[in-house]
Amino acid sequence: MTRPEKAMVLAAGLGTRMRPLTAQTAKPLLPLGGRTLLDHALDRLAAAGVKTAVVNTHWHAERVAAHLATRTAPPMTVLRREQQLLDTGGAVLAALAAGALGPEPFFVVNGDAFWLDGPHPALTRLADAFDPAALDAVLLVHPTSLVHADIGAGDFAIDRSGVLRRRGEREIVPYLYAGVQLLSPSFFAGAPDGAFSMNLLWDRAIAAGRLRPVVHDGLWFHLSRPADLAEAEATLHAPITGETR
User: Fold this and answer.
1) 10 Å Cβ neighbour count for 194?
2) What is the span of the domain harbouring residue 225?
3) pTM surpassing 0.70?
4) What values do phi and psi take at 154, rounded to 5?
5) For the chain, how many structural domains are there in total?
6) CATH no. for residue 201?
């Protein structure tokens, strides 16, 4: 498919598990490897050919706005302030309904998602795997066994044909959602108004056979608590991984 030129970065969350680091700032503005998490996400999108990125804000929205005003590198950013949190699905649907994301497939990246690419960039791999005629969504997933953090029992399993399924009750599954996805506007057809989780639409797309996973082949960092951020910083300076830039 044609490479997506638009994206959305979800940066409105309260970051409660990252307190006290997020008491006075938004989680995507926390530094890692000399740059904010938000800048890392935007830089990855720019490298993938994205020209416009919508960024939603709520918690310390003024700080996010001020930070984006200092950026001179692409992509161009469009700020959307949420007076009330719309959750992941509601936030993207609101931006889509406002015309900010256009009629073509677009990336959605969590504002705290941080990864190092493997042999091929993760965003390129998502675009290569996306068939608009057959799919509404492609998710980046990461092996749970490679994450050094408290991640619970995982999110998904993948069968031999590459079909994704949810974790069953009392089941441990080998993949986590990595906070990066490529979506078609058709993914949101019939979605509810107001706040709702992306999980609602994922389940619908899985049931219809219109969602597929891409397994990340590089490093991915679970950044939930302050200790996770400290460990990620140490990993970035380890000889095996090197610097992020």
Assistant:
1) 12
2) 6-236
3) yes
4) 85, 175
5) 1
6) 3.90.550.10
